[in-house]
Write a structure and sequence with these properties.
This protein has 369 residues and is of the alpha/beta class. The chain contains 13 helices and 15 strands. The two termini are 21 Å apart.
Length: 369
């Protein structure tokens, strides 16, 4: 199969779809891989590395899109990339379509087959291709939040770990999944007073056991979240509904009850965010202040540590890329129902319930492929 790996063009996005090692694996299986020049240069993967792995270098993204049939990316295609997408393309990347009606309609119009990393599940209902970036984002959320709490960043001047005689900062994490768990690891590591809110008693029991009681756990209700808002220095939004828009747990009105200079880090921003006051920011301008509350809502947080993220992502995606390269995608999705959940769009139809529900569009059953 002809496989294309374009350079990512989102602001300050230096991740790349596959490492040279991943490319070599595909080339060893007699596939042809086209890689845009400088695609991995910023994170230490040179054009020579890709060439040595067997890739054909392309001087422009246009060439990659023209030559490739299976397109491996990291982020959702931007407007100038959408123009390159054809009906025969299989697009394999993070899509987060429930947060973008425009992109959904553009991809439907193209007729391409779009398979999203973030909606593929395994037999335990986990999200194996979202997990590595969720781990990175969860850990980064505390790192970013701690920085934003500094006075120079318009924060309230709180050191999360405190010092002897001064209490630590309070961190509230909304959601006890992969993001929330990794955020808790970092927050507790810094010595912060850390609480996770989740609406699954079973999950709260697991977290309590995992952290040996060092982590506070609270059942999530409107009232308990309100209490968290009034007391927290840092609130991390880590709620995910696979394929669907994130629920808005904190309203604009709630901001007035937060301590001035407190920080919100919305890790769910790719899915629309779980704070009503959130809007997507970039690594170039990661924060804004609203009603005295610092908001960090970067849509590609793991891009800041792009080398670590690319290595972790390739480890997770390679088995799926190899299957798509070696087989007809229809037969794979027919035989593997968990992989099939990754299919968001094909031939102008929606196959992901979360996307269809987000925009009140018709849903086609997967068995009608």
């Amino acid at each position: 199969m002809r496989i294309g790996i374009p350079k990512e063009i989102k602001v300050h996005e230096y991740r790349v779809g596959l490492t040279p090692s991943g490319v070599k694996e595909l080339c060893n299986q007699k596939h042809t891989v086209f890689v845009e020049t400088h695609a991995g240069e910023k994170i230490g993967f040179s054009d020579q590395d890709y060439q040595d792995a067997g890739a054909i270098l392309c001087q422009s993204s246009d060439q990659v899109w023209q030559q490739g049939q299976l397109i491996i990316k990291v982020k959702e295609p931007l407007a100038e990339e959408v123009e390159q997408i054809r009906q025969d393309h299989i697009l394999f990347t993070y899509l987060h379509l429930a947060a973008s009606e425009t992109l959904t309609h553009d991809l439907l119009k193209s007729g391409c087959t779009a398979i999203a990393y973030e909606t593929i599940t395994d037999q335990f209902q986990r999200l194996p291709l979202l997990a590595p970036m969720s781990e990175v984002a969860g850990r980064m959320s505390v790192q970013a939040g701690a920085h934003c709490l500094e006075i120079a960043q318009k924060g309230r001047g709180v050191l999360l770990g405190g010092v002897p005689g001064v209490p630590p900062g309070k961190v509230s994490i909304l959601g006890g999944g992969v993001v929330g768990t990794n955020a808790a690891i970092m927050a507790l590591g810094l010595g912060a007073d850390t609480t996770i809110y989740d609406n699954s008693p079973d999950r709260l029991r697991v977290l309590d056991a995992q952290f040996n009681g060092r982590l506070k756990t609270v059942y999530s209700t409107q009232d308990s979240i309100y209490q968290a808002i009034c007391q927290s220095d840092l609130i991390i939004g880590a709620v995910l509904i696979p394929g669907a828009a994130a629920p808005k747990l904190v309203t604009r009105e709630h901001l007035s009850h937060m301590p001035q200079g407190a920080v919100i880090v919305d890790v769910a921003i790719d899915q629309g965010g779980c704070f009503e006051s959130s809007r997507v920011t970039t690594h170039a301008e990661p924060t804004y202040t609203k009603q005295g509350i610092v908001h960090y809502c970067v849509g590609n947080m793991p891009g800041a540590v792009a080398r670590t993220s690319t290595l972790a992502l390739t480890n997770a995606t390679m088995p799926y890329v190899i299957k798509l390269a070696n087989n007809d995608w229809r037969s794979i999705l027919h035989d593997e129902p968990f992989f099939a959940k990754g299919l968001n769009l094909s031939n102008g139809h929606i196959y992901c319930p979360g996307v269809a529900d987000a925009f009140d569009l018709p849903l086609r059953p997967i068995n009608q492929i």
